[in-house]
Amino acid sequence: MKGSLKMTNLLSRIRNSSKKTKTNTNQHRNRKRFKLRNQNAISIPKDLPSPHEEEDEEEENAEEGFKLKSSAPLLTHGVQPLGNLYLNPGSINSRDTGLGNLHTLSDELVLEILGFLDSTDLGVLSTVSKSFYVFTNHEPLWRNLVLENLNGGFQFNGSWKSTYVAASYPSFDISSNALKSFKVRDFYSDYLFQSWLCANLEMKPEWLERDNIVRKRGISVEEFVLNFEEPNKPVLLEGCIDNWDALENWDRDYLMQLSGDVKFAVGPVEMKLGDYFRYSDQVREERPLYLFDPKFAEKVPKLGSEYEVPVYFREDLFGVLGSERPDYRWIIIGPAGSGSSFHVDPNSTSAWNAVIKGSKKWILFPPDVIPPGVHPSPDGAEVASPVSIIEWFMNFYGATKNWKKKPVECVCKAGEVIFVPNGWWHLVINLEESIAITQNYVSRRNLLNVLDFLNRPNASTLVSGTRDRVNLYDKFKNAIEASFPGEIDELARKAEKKIQQKKLSFWDSVSDSNAGAFKFSF
Amino acid sequence: MELLCIRQWISGLLPTVKKWLSAWCIKPVGGALVRQEPEYILLALMGSPLKKIMLCSSEKEIFSVEEQVMVQHSVIINNMIEDGSYNHEESKIPLDCVDSKTLKKVIDYCTHHTHHHNDNQEDLEAWDAQFLNVDSNGLYDLLMAANYLEIRNLLDLIYGTIKNMIKGKKIDEIRRIFNIKDHGFTPEEEEQNRKEYPHFY
């Protein structure tokens, strides 16, 4: 908040994609959920008109500033970030006056309280005051109501609230009612503003510029193992799925036709493809629901037959467990903006991800480099990170520009396969509606790692993709011994040798007077 | 120094002792059955004071509380003690967002629930209801303190109370309960509300 800042209302700045503004980002952490919310101090222009007349303004040239999705509803209720309040001396925050005694609570706590109410209570509250009106229209509240009560069998109707009302009160005429939003003046709230902003932001071009992954086409399996799998480095492989029927056939209509009424796993619920696409076409939210089904080939066998594992990844030792193996293959469908925030793949496995339609932006950090803004607990069981992917880009991506160890980045397009080595942090965001297949696997190279992981004392919380977490270690070890007797011992011996060699070379370098480890000066 | 060693030694012994003491009960004459925790028995027998920690409110008032009590209820304090950053001889835990009045209430809650966790459900609920009989601002201060310290059962209790303040009430009642003087709707907007949601009014 410096004196040199031009006074620009964030709303008009975004709408017009106009002049440069400096945003003061004070990060404060919500202790309970480890969400990072920015406090943007944005300044207001004296010369630009007030927020309520923006609809008539023309777009100016985009310099900096964020670009909104073209279909973004113009700030449904006129919520402004808290910073604006401080720059408007004498202004009262209608948030506080409208909440009454509850105004001392933070936005998160108020929303937490509202999370306990049913739709009728929320409806009543929305007419109690303008402030409550804004809070009760917070879409995630209605999303939870839909997912809890309608369980995936819902017809998305433009917004979660609308969807819920339409499903619960079919005779209620939605068109004339709840969607007629009231204009709200002088309502300042960082949480609600940020929520809206993240839901409606487009990916900035500069976030997509860096593409530094190694790309290979037509290499041999040996070359892949030697140069990438063994040293645990990511690579983008081109041309290795050209023979897939899926590449040719899979599009929306084809998939819908094949799957009929079969329900796929979408977050906490299961949905038919048609219903899912209806949702993904209309949705504008921070973290869209992502279709991520580990049993797609069992549900629709034809899907499983139209692709095959690329030749580099055929050695998959979890296969010895047969039907008892943890989840290992997923079909992934999602709209632009959906994806996964930073995580490490479970059970210490490696993965490959093939894009069949659309494109994905990937950011990868090696196992020893924790991405900015990500806070894993010491045992790795919990990872606290910003809620949405867009928020990570807004707040943390810039920091990586100055790092020596830059992340590996790429945009993976249809027909390309990315190899994600085990232990690597990765974040994925769909740049357009995408269909992809991914598999996790264990090869000889990371067999020992996986066994180690499964043998950990807290395996019951960390191991994923199977119901039998505690016994997985024993089962897997025994199955490997049965199919590949002596293999584990052999690998252990080799690993031990390597460690010894490394140790030797350390002592060599210390005793070597030319190493320059000790220098005396007089 | 010696006392500290003894205390640490006792704490180290406790898990094993707890096992063979677990069948012991102490029944005070003429009152409700109260089962004493084995560690209290042992420490009482040994004559050692219970381990205490110091909490410092925003008004710089210091409260001495049994460590067990806070560790059982507050995730934040539990983490602090577990990772060893709290030095029993010197440290005070500063709680700058909690004032003395609220902190005292929080400590009351945790202490009661630790010492009386074997009481029957009705008694506990009655005590909780009495406990929450505070003015409205006190309630929200408690909520913020419980949120800050991450005391799950107190949070759930307060959320439940506030939920009941809202559930099933009419608009005017809610405005009265939460002291909302300026609802912010223009007369036209209120009229629109009345027409569209007559059943709420």
UniProtKB/TrEMBL annotation, chain A:
Region annotation (Disordered) ranges: 1-65
Location relative to the cell: Nucleus
Keyword NADP: no
F-box domain mapped to chain residues: 99-145
Keywords: Iron, Metal-binding, Nucleus, Oxidoreductase
GO cellular component: nucleus
Cofactor dependency: Fe(2+)
Listed Polar residues bias regions: 1-15
Assigned protein family: Belongs to the JARID1 histone demethylase family.
Name the UniProt record assigns to this protein: Arginine-specific demethylase JMJ22
Species this chain originates from: Arachis duranensis (Wild peanut)
TrEMBL record, chain B:
SMART domains: Skp1
Lineage top rank: taxon: Eukaryota
Domain SKP1 component dimerisation positions: 153-198
Xref: Gene3D superfamilies: Potassium Channel Kv1.1, Chain A
Entry-linked SUPFAM superfamilies: POZ domain (SSF54695), Skp1 dimerisation domain-like (SSF81382)
Residues of the SKP1 component POZ domain: 51-114
Pathways involved: Protein modification; protein ubiquitination
InterPro entries for this protein: SKP1, SKP1-like, SKP1-like_dim_sf, SKP1/BTB/POZ_sf, Skp1_comp_dimer, Skp1_comp_POZ
Keywords, ordered alphabetically: Ubl conjugation pathway
Homology family: Belongs to the SKP1 family.
Protein name: SKP1-like protein 11 isoform X3
Organism: Arachis duranensis (Wild peanut)
